[in-house]
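Objective 1b. Sequence-to-structure analysis of SGNH/GDSL hydrolase family protein.
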Amino acid sequence: MKFLALGDSFTEGVGDTSMVRPNRVRGWADRVAEVLCTQGDWQYANLAIRGKKIGQVINQQLDAGLALRPDLVTIYAGGNDILRPSADLDALMRGYDGMVRRFIEAGSTVVLFTGFDTVDSPLFNKTRPRTAIYNEKIREIADNHGAIVADYWRWREFSDLRYWAGDRLHMNEFGHTLMAYKVLELLGKHNIADPQWGEQINLPGLPELPVNSRGERLRQDMGWAREHLGPWVKRRLTGTSSGDTLSARYPDYVKLS
């Protein structure tokens, strides 16, 4: 059996640092693959690269993914488009529909992700209406083609700040671990993996939430702006991406342990 992961930073694994993995990240897809490869006869490829938008995933990952003839495909792209108010989500999601259709016609089982609900995020809550539109399109595509939906929007556990990295945009190792557990649980429900395999994911205890003074929170916000917001704005202004110099982490099938 062959598992292929497509998409952007969410699937590449940004926020879950590992100095011994390609691009120095691990992520939920690796963690799922480790269980599949260890417990069953699976192989794993991951073409996701941070910063990619829907059009780039279609143009750069679709044909390469089809050539790998996967049995199971996970796809998430759209977060970088949602952050751009000028992006035409209706047009982009028509391309997304075509991508899913081609994998389904090739005989793959496809898992799609809804976007995360940013209702509790002071920074990103203004993107919530666009995310809701994106999610409805995802559910419509899944209904039309028989794809499986991993409903990130409804997984409220991820609203806990302890699941998020310092950039406030990506999950940390705790978040990626929980996501791997949720995905394996979903695969078990659909008889793609053994329902017991999710127990192989060791969910670590979360650290206690710090109680910070107003001054400390202000210092943290200023540090975040310097370290993360400033470089992001610069990339937007210069038309560059954090993934421009990176390659797919696992362009061919491997077995992870």
